[in-house]
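Render this sequence as a predicted structure.
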Amino acid sequence: MKKCTYSATREAIVAKAIGPVASELRLIDPADLISLLRLEYHANISDLVSSAAELYFHPGTVCFGIGGDYRLDWDTYPSVTLDLEIKPRGVTIHAQLTLEAERACIEINYINFVSPSANPDENTRFLEDSLLEATFRPSSRGMASLSAANY
């Protein structure tokens, strides 16, 4: 995607939302992810991504895209890149999630708003709200009853 003034802000919003999923995926041995990519077992990778995402997002919000890549050399740590499709209400995002030894990062390749505004700032706010709406958040009422039941 051609970078523009609001690209960095949108990538930061998506990175914050997808961070817990990236943390879950980083628990998988990189050799396993690399072998699945190398052998083109995309359905298996899709299952792993869906399993990691279902802990934090409504079903179908975060899906494995069409492939991925890896870097693996003798003198460096492995790096695995997975194509993701992120679909909160009203937005479709095609991105690449890169998993490394100490960090993860995301790059947006394409973003489509179903009903875009002429104002890019409004679109960015809609993206943030839509991602927040698609995440699981414990309700304060549910947490209070859980706390009371456990003590």
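Summary. Helices lie at 7-25, 30-38, 42-53, 120-133, 140-150. The CA atoms of residues 71 and 79 lie 5 Å apart.
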